[in-house]
Amino acid sequence: MTLKEIEAFYWTAVLSNFSLAAAKLHITQSSLSKRVAELEASVGVPLFERSSKKVQLTDSGARLLPIARQFLDLADSMQAEAVATTRLSGECKFGISELIALTWLPGLVNSVRQRHPGLKLQPYVDLARGLERRVVRGELDFAVAPGPAESSALVSEKIAGVEFTWIGAPSRISPGTVIAASDLPRYPLITMTEGSGLTRAFEKWANEQGMPPQRTVACNSLMGIVGLTIADVGISFLPARFVQPWLDRGVLVAIRSVPPLPTLDYCFIHRQDDSRTVVRELKQYVHEASSATGWSLPAPFI
């Protein structure tokens, strides 16, 4: 006998209708009848009266009905236990950049906590290169940062491409100004400090344009760069969606360069030899959380 046969017998008896039972189990009525007949053959006794137009249990069927319910309850318990065992527990230490901490980290934490309440999340915020080193050493389970990672021991899977824009104070430059890459060295540049994926991407772009070195002010905080740019210490380049609130207020203006800044890939970074379930599961949650916000600042930050 099979669980499907017991299920067919039970619901036919409870609903007193072959058609309704078949519909509940999403099978045809002929398939339902076949399963009931196979169960009867297995137990060696008829379970339903065949002489009646109504669906009526035999004495044997009536005695076996409670046992059938017990079988189905056990099956439900097994399924619930199996689902429970897939819930993650313990600790998950992961690295993120400041941009992620300010945009979609709250959504990620909420989603994981709802599905895996026994999993303790321990985020660590740092620049990309520092996060990569910690993943290589096994201090972090994974990281989400500008990539790809430099180490051959790591796998980098793209999560999203983030668009960047030049920004400046309106007292320095007019809205909609277009600047050739060759003219950018005339302006003081505010950048992230060494080890940042943003800085590495810009240096690569600048080298491709043949730009000479320029005056720079280093800052290890995106919010700090926003403040320095509003104060007209120099121009800077930041994620377009991230700086939109300050552009809307008019305290910053967007600047276009020719050629434009490249899109920066943010990646889910983990060790090549790490195939644990927690890493696979969290990667899916990272995809969902990063897609939900569009990399914009949530209302409380604006």
Automatic annotation (TrEMBL):
InterPro entries (UniProt xref): LysR_HTH_N, LysR_subst-bd, WH-like_DNA-bd_sf, WH_DNA-bd_sf
Molecular function terms, GO-annotated: DNA-binding transcription factor activity; transcription cis-regulatory region binding
Segments forming domain HTH lysR-type: 1-58
Pfam family, one: LysR_substrate
SUPFAM superfamilies: Periplasmic binding protein-like II, Winged helix' DNA-binding domain
Keywords: DNA-binding, Transcription, Transcription regulation
Keyword hit for Transcription regulation: yes
UniProt key word Transcription: yes
Similarity comment text for this entry: Belongs to the LysR transcriptional regulatory family.
Protein name: LysR family transcriptional regulator
Organism lineage string: Bacteria, Pseudomonadati, Pseudomonadota, Betaproteobacteria, Burkholderiales
